[in-house]
Amino acid sequence: MPEAEGAQPGMHAGDLDSLRDAAHDRAVLSEARVVLARRLGVPPGEALQHLIWLARDLDMSLVEAASLLVKDGVSGPVGAVLAGRRAPRAEGGAAERRAAVSQIEDVLRRVTAEDTAGDSEILAEVPEDPVARAVLDATLDSSAHLVPVRGENGEVTDFLFAELNDVARDMFGRGREDLKGQRLLQTDPGAVQSGLFDEYVRVLETGTNFERSSIPYTTAQRGLSRSSRTSVRCVKVPTGVCLTWRYHHAEDRTVRRLERVERLALMGFGEWDLATGEAEWTPQMLANYGLGPDEVPPSPHDLPKVVAEDDVPLVEEAVQTMFSRREPVEAEHRVTGPDGEPRHLWVFAEPVLGDNGLPVSINIVSQDITRRRGVERALAETRRQMLKQQERMAQERRVAVTLRRAILPDEDEIERLPGLTTAIRSLAAESTARIGGDWFATRVMADGNALFAIGDAAGHGLPAAAAMARSRNGLLGLACTGESPGRLVGWLNELVGTMDPPATGTAIVAEFDPRHRVLEWTCAGHPPPILVRDGDAEPMEVVRDPMLGAMPGWEYSTITTPLQRGDVVFLYTDGLVERRDADLEERIARLTRILRDCSTRPDLMVDEVLARMEHDRAADDTTLFVVRVQ
């Protein structure tokens, strides 16, 4: 008989079930994450975190919570929720900066080619200049004493650094030791492109001071460019000019970081000056209230006019508290956004008191929490629907338990099989969510033979219980034909394959002839039975026929095994040997070792095996069926 298509040598039904369960769990988690992300309007990673919290809140496993989410009635839309903000684009002006750098590099190539052999003589001829020295000593910022370099016609072509103060640093971090004696344009060619060089020459020639605050400035050196806002001051001294400058790197970096924090957190800051009536709000603060950059912020007493009507009393009370009790306040209120949709703001405000104890200004911080409130609403609705679905599933589980009890006879009600002593233990999973499709069946045939079977319908819950009932009852009905086990299982395979909904399962069906002590049996993807004989135990040789419902039209083989008086055949379902943290073959080998040194009396054997196998009662049903030849 050929092996089942797609089956691998050495792979049992338990291996396939484990792989199938693991793949099913991953698929359910993936689908649930997508469903929840769509409902909440959040990225899949954030949706997974919310799914974990929902599972924890509902006291269920992650896979169980995911299964509830993907059931009908839970995956529908809840309402629009603001999606995550897009990443900002790089700051503008890149093209202009590249053009400026290109011009600066042209200047640098030109001035680098000039002859500087006479620079040392120019500096040697510069007399002592106490005015320049006083300027350098009195300046807290970077400062330099520049002397002119003149061309053949007397025009100023460049400046030399005659002296610098100790704190002087150019945009590339060079100080006094690096710059003294160097030409200005060779170290800072951006002075030409920005027009500052012409201003320095004008100061030298006219004596008129020059000053600029916070101008954009770019320069280049050795293939590198630097940009910063810069403040510059230039004054004439007897031997040239003194230049003072400050780069606003740190201030700009701080401002950019604050702006990014406000944008990322949707948080804005505002300040009301109660003496002048002026208000200063950051761009994000204006955006939170739906105001444009040029619009005037409302005064504290006008703030209730811009909030939602239902929230006006709350905001009025907060404003009154600040002015009467002079205490900080915090509150949540809604405003109408530019798109006409309500926007939720969480506001913190505090009065700033003067020497007389009266408020002189008010600081206010607002955060747009619309997305958070939308997610919370969607999560609350999702949780409500999951609870309803959980109740429906609990009802299904109760039905499954009732059906199992109704179909499977109690152990003391099992009919006596000729020539055999039997013992059965059928244990439902401790978790009702994991109740599966374990079943067993016995029948005394018309010819005096004994039919017994054990099986496991795939899955859990009511579908598995229904498939179990159909499989067991179908086999007992087919057994009336008196056909061989292989033929019976072939018909049972067709029956299982045509169930609605589709089902699969495993089974061992056996018929024992007590007169000749011969066992004829068939294995449909089930874990192999174990034969215990004369103190030894070994798994019985099986033909690897596929599980029920997997291969329509398959012809199942019938195995013939002669037995002896005192032989024990131990049958079991995968719940006894399967563990996610252990190899199935190792677990079957452990069961075999236990059977070698335990009692051969069937009822004692099942009790000892259950005590020593340490199987997971919560994960799956477990059924043991033991027959001993008399």
Automatic annotation (TrEMBL):
Transmembrane segments: none annotated. GO terms for molecular function: phosphatase activity; RNA binding. Residues 329-381 form the PAC domain. The keyword Protein biosynthesis does not apply. Keywords: Coiled coil, Hydrolase. Pfam families: ANTAR, PAS_3, SpoIIE. It comes from the Bacteria. Residues 9-70 form the ANTAR domain. Residues 372-399 form a coiled coil. This is Serine phosphatase RsbU (Regulator of sigma subunit).
